[in-house]
Amino acid sequence: MNHRFERLVVVVVAVAALFLPGCAPPIPIEKVPEGWALNTHQPGEWWTQPVIPRSVVVQRCPPPAGWASEPDLTRVTGLRPGIDVNYSFWTDDYHCYIGWSQLPSRMEVAPEERATERRLRRICATSGLDLDQGWRFLGHSAAGRSGATIGEVSAVAFIDEYHTVVGCILGYDLVDYGISATVELSVGADGVAGGACPVRPSNLSARDDQSVETYELKGAGVVRDRGGRVLAEAASLRIGLAGDSVTTTHPVVDGVAIVGASVTPKAAIRFQDWDHPPAVEGQILDADGKLLATCRA
What we know:
By secondary structure, the chain is mainly β. The protein has helices spanning 3-19, 54-60, 117-125, and strands at 52-53, 68-70, 78-79, 84-89, 92-97, 107-108, 136-145, 148-159, 164-172, 178-187, 202-206, 212-222, 236-241, 248-253, 256-263, 280-285, 291-296. The protein starts with a helix and ends with a strand.
């Protein structure tokens, strides 16, 4: 092989590495800032900001050489917590969850120990978010099927001094006592436009006619009146698919609804695609059953 041809091969390979699909320039490998820790108690919607440095992301989710990333870690210097990084090369790809204060984990807890605050705090920390004592425990909701409680905790709620609400959703391994958790954070103060329900349908299954066969409601969030005031006097949230007679009722603690249900609707509620589930409607009630407000999401 002559030297001219060798140089041509090197140039072609270099160009291919930069421009062909699936190839990518190297992601910077940086030193994690000394003493770095995620500050989980601060004002504002900090969880929507790129508060996890790229160096931490790369440490937790090491990139294979030459693989592209989404978000593009060659350009961004930080990511918001609780999301996946997708690495890809040609037709191969894999997702890596970057976590929160730390990477997610899993723990084993006997069924009789799952409903205590101490255990639920530890279980929710498997999400990667440090559920320290700065998060005040509000309570939990037991999973029910169309309103009938079956005993398993499915959602837990916490709030901190900055009125950030943590909705913790539990996942169970049917083979053993393994439990893991995911969390969603939301604003728990007055001022956000009212009228929106704190949860949306998830894990839908469909009949042949593309109507909803079953769905789940899981999570936690504040309930508000139309003016955006948190309804601290509320005691319960009754909620279901818009147009369906089947509803489930869930506790509201200090204005935060804690929702956990698996539901089979009676009406034929159709939806077009999985990314756009049908709407839910709810009624927010006080301790005497008086209607305080309605919501829709």
